[in-house]
């Protein structure tokens, strides 16, 4: 099982699609287009956020749908997950630090996450074999968010939120993520969506890393 981790807008879904086609495997995409809370999270005022608790509800929604994908993915070989369940904690932590998720809500969230990550008898494992982590400059992140054109993501008031998320993402990956081996792809260097040479090189790097892992 392969999972792709990255900041919002880095290109996870595009790489997941390419990788699924390359490996002939199923792809489990992050629940975005059918997510009833995500547009509310992005467009709500601070007063509405405090009253209706959209950040907490959004984290619960993502946690639930991601855990369902993990259970489906682990019954077959060679599946690709668009974002990992481990990253959900980072998003929850940032929103807690911003005062959008309360201490009690975060405590409840962490308890639920820990429970989900405990090994279940009917599942061989829940940890991925490889995390492909997309890293890059904040300018590239903003450019890609603008290019994909989801209306509720484009408000200028969200730029500070994106910057806060981006500023700690690499540190989270380097110091907190321990579930699997990691292959880093720099999105400033590789444009695997629009450049065929970059696409070939990225897929080749991933294929070689998977072969290395299988050989251990």
UniProtKB/TrEMBL annotation:
Per UniProt, where does ATP bind? 144-148
Give the UniProt entry's GO cellular component terms: cytoplasm
Q: Which residues form the active site?
A: 82
Residues annotated as binding substrate are: 30, 42, 59, 83, 88, 153
Q: Which Gene3D superfamilies match?
A: P-loop containing nucleotide triphosphate hydrolases (3.40.50.300)
Molecular function GO labels:
ATP binding; deoxynucleoside kinase activity
The highest taxon in the source lineage is Bacteria
Q: Which residues, if any, are the signal sequence?
A: none
Keywords, A to Z? ATP-binding, Kinase, Nucleotide-binding, Transferase
Q: Where is the Deoxynucleoside kinase domain?
A: 2-208
Coiled-coil residues: none
Do the record's keywords include Nucleotide-binding?
yes
Extract the Pfam families matched here.
Answer: dNK
Q: Which InterPro entries match?
A: DCK/DGK (IPR002624), Deoxyribonucleoside_kinase (IPR050566), DNK_dom (IPR031314), P-loop_NTPase (IPR027417)
The text of the family note is: Belongs to the DCK/DGK family.
**Which named protein is this?**
Deoxyadenosine/deoxycytidine kinase
Q: Which organism is it from?
A: [Clostridium] polysaccharolyticum
Taxonomic lineage per UniProt? Bacteria, Bacillati, Bacillota, Clostridia, Lachnospirales
